[in-house]
Amino acid sequence: MRKVLIVGLVVAVTAVACSPGASTSTPVPELQRQADLYAIEHLEVTFHKAASIKDIELMMSIWADNATLVLGAETYTGKAEIRDFFLNKSGPFKPANTWEGDTPAYKIVITIDGDKGTLYYECHFIDVATRAVASATASNQSVARINGVWLITNAVGGTAILSP
């Protein structure tokens, strides 16, 4: 009897909560904003995971087809050129380097405006053997929701100043 009562209560609460007139504590636009913030922040997580494990396919999964990457006077346009940069010039992808990528969470800045936004973060690459910072860079990115997925459309990289 108790089991039937509990199941009946769950069904009743679910029916009321899911009814068209049911109110929620968080408005739908705010839920979408939170989902977008999470998805954009996940670009940074994926970037550092891909760099740390030297997974070029994972790295390229976060770039739009026509993205640009600007590093100093060099501009790489499109996935083929960006892939070539990571495979042949990027420190974390060099076979001799065993680096772990990290970003202090408090240094991540995200903005959202509809289907476009920005993402700023610092890359602190730690040499696993020496436990020393091998490279400290910063990336200022434009991102966009393309076919329902947030991707990097433009990234400008530079040197990060290590400070709190």
Salient structural properties:
164 residues; alpha+beta; Nuclear Transport Factor 2, Chain: A; 7-stranded mixed beta sheet; 4 helices; 7 strands; 35% helix; 36% strand; globular
Task: Provide a quick synopsis of the model.
The protein has 164 residues and is α+β, with helices and mostly antiparallel strands.
Q: How would you sum up this structure, described in words?
A:
This protein is α+β, with helices and mostly antiparallel strands. It has one domain (27-159): Nuclear Transport Factor 2, Chain: A. Helices cover 35% and strands 36% of the residues. The chain contains 4 helices and 7 strands. Strands 1, 2, 3, 4, 5, 6 and 7 form a 7-stranded mixed β-sheet that branches. A hairpin with a 5-residue loop joins strand 5 and strand 6 (133-146). The chain is globular and about 50 Å long.
